[in-house]
Amino acid sequence: MELSAKAHAPHVSISLRSVFERYGIYIFLGLLFITASLVSPQFLNPQNLKDILNQAAALGMVAIGQTFVILIGGGGLDLSVASVMATVAVIMAHNTGGQDTLFLPVAAVCLFFGILVGLINGLLITKRKVQPFMATLGVMIIVQGLRFLYTKGAPKGGFPPILRFLGTGDIGPIPTSILSLAVLAMMAVIVLNKTTLGRQIYAIGGNIETAFLAGYRIHLVITVVYMISGFCAAIAGLYLAGYVGISDNWVGRGYELDSIAAVVMGGTSFAGGRGGVMGTIVGVLIIIMLYNLVLLLHLPVQVQYIVKGAIIIMAASFYAVFRKSS
Predict the structure, then answer these.
(1) Residue 276 · residue 64 · CB < 8 Å
(2) How do residues 82-97 score in pLDDT, each as one tens digit?
(3) Host H or E run for residue 174
(4) Which of 165, 292, 281 is nearest to 232 (CA)?
(5) Which of 25, 61, 173, 307 is buried most deeply by CB count within 10 Å?
(6) Mutual orientation of helices 277-296 and 302-325 as an angle, nearest 10°?
């Protein structure tokens, strides 16, 4: 009997390790929600919960695109997303003049702009062999400069009511923005798990040499991934503009780092080939809930950065320990 128990012990250990590796981020989200509810009674206020969801929507959208980029491996990340978000916001404000009739054509231009920026990033990385960090950093600075030239440093115009509805409205009891995030997330999950492109992304991220030998068009897939990131950033910029409600050259500032943090916390490996969108969404919720809790507790805003940095380090350490032992 004692021998039998010992024989089964490793299986129990492996099972527990697998559970914590796969579901640890969800457990942490649940514990954070409970803790926030206990330390701040205002946390469960319906309006506060709605604000959390609205704030999570834009970050979730841009983080979905960032997930594709990091999954592809090779040190992939996209630092240009925040500049794309701010630029599409000022394009929308400048060219609609607050009119709903112009929303769709201007929105199409904004989405095309995001895809174009992603295409440029992808071509720099694949054709010119520029490291992703440097390529997307350079593009970020160029887009920022173009935005300031376009606005002459002073954005003007207003957002159409339909964009405000997308950013702050509700369909029944659910914020419109979070419904849109759910649709985008489902589409991303389908692409990653049910399509040839998704299989190629995981294959390239897992082992680029094997993927090359298998006949995958590596450069094309990498370029498409960055175009997806630019597209998601453009959508996020429109929703964030609708939520904020004012034209600003710095809309989305800091989202490039927050989106990377959410992806890492969600379990996607910087080495590529491992992770997914659902973990990223949980990472987004954790970041937004932490920000919200800092404000509810009337702590200095600088505490947000300390808490976020600590959580990122803990999350990275958590996954590193489990993967090393697996």
Answers:
(1) no
(2) 999 999 999 999 999 8
(3) strand 174-175
(4) 281
(5) 61
(6) 150
Q: For residue 171, give the DSSP letter.
A: E
Contacts of 239 (CB under 8 A, 6+ apart): 57, 58, 61, 166, 167, 177, 180
Crossing angle (nearest 10°) for helices 46-71 and 218-244? 160
Euclidean distance between CA atoms 50 and 170, whole angstroms: 10
Cα separation, 152 vs 144, whole angstroms: 12
pLDDT at 88: 97
Q: Residue 96 carries which side chain, given as an amino acid letter?
A: T
- Amino acid found at 3: L
The amino acid that residue 57 corresponds to is A
CA gap 307, 244 in Å, rounded:
24
Q: At which residue do the structure tokens 């330390």 appear?
A: 39
Token pair of 138 as six digits: 């350079």
| The two three-digit tokens of residue 221, written as one number | 């897939």
Q: How far apart are CA 318 and CA 55, in angstroms?
A: 26
Q: Where are the alpha helices (DSSP H) in the chain?
A: 2-39, 46-71, 81-96, 103-126, 132-151, 161-168, 176-194, 196-206, 208-213, 218-244, 255-265, 277-296, 302-325
What's CA 312's distance to the chain center, in Å?
14
Quote the CA–CA distance of 268 and 59 in Å, as a whole number. Answer: 16
CB count within 10 Å of CB 93 equals 24
Structure token digits, residue 273? 């080939």
Read off the pLDDT of residues 204-231 as tens digits, 9 standing for 90 and up.
Answer: 999 999 999 999 999 999 999 999 999 9
Calpha distance 13→18 (Å, rounded): 9
* Stated length of the chain: 326
User: Alpha carbon 24 to chain centroid distance?
Assistant: 19
Beta bridge partners of 171: 174
pTM (predicted TM-score): 0.92
